[in-house]
């Protein structure tokens, strides 16, 4: 594997992008629609004070939508028609984002860095936590998100001869 080096390393604050945030108290169906319509891998969840809490991946929304017995035996999914699938989606009605989240003790570590983190520090943390999103925050205020695809782009450009 080739080593990447930077004369003056880029910092997280320089590569962070604006990214949708949802509050724990927001409507779960709205959050799911945001994920679907913008084809996002996940969204950053903040508390009502705007402090980052966790990342809600689309896969967690699917875990909430799909009955446990179907998750345990995916062959049962074949008997679901569109109407039944629509009923699954209706389980989000009247729910909050907080209800979609796993219990705190089962949540993954929040992938968060200070704005001064280097691109390589960001990449290392994302790789360790196996997350496509990295929150860039300073003093509990979210400044943006670094995505895995953006980091890959930067790292691959750095590897060009």
From TrEMBL:
SUPFAM superfamilies: CBS-domain pair. Coiled coil: none annotated. InterPro entries: CBS_dom (IPR000644), CBS_dom_sf (IPR046342). Residues 16-53, 107-155 form the CBS domain. This is CBS domain protein. It comes from Herbihabitans rhizosphaerae. The lineage of its organism: Bacteria, Bacillati, Actinomycetota, Actinomycetes, Pseudonocardiales.
């Amino acid at each position: 594997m080739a080593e990447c080096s930077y004369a003056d390393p880029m910092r997280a604050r320089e590569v962070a992008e604006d990214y949708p945030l949802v509050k724990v108290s927001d409507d779960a169906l709205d959050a799911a629609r945001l994920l679907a319509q913008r084809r996002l891998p996940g969204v950053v969840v903040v508390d009502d004070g705007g402090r980052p809490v966790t990342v809600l991946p689309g896969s967690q929304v699917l875990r909430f939508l799909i009955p446990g017995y179907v998750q345990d035996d995916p062959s049962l999914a074949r008997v679901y028609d569109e109407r039944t699938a629509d009923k699954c989606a209706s389980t989000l009605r009247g729910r909050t984002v907080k209800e979609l989240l796993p219990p705190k003790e089962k949540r993954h570590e929040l992938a968060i860095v200070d704005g001064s983190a280097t691109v390589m520090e960001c990449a290392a943390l994302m790789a360790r936590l196996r997350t496509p999103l990295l929150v860039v925050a300073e003093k509990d205020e979210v400044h943006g998100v670094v995505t895995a695809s953006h980091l890959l782009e930067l790292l691959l450009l750095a590897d060009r001869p």
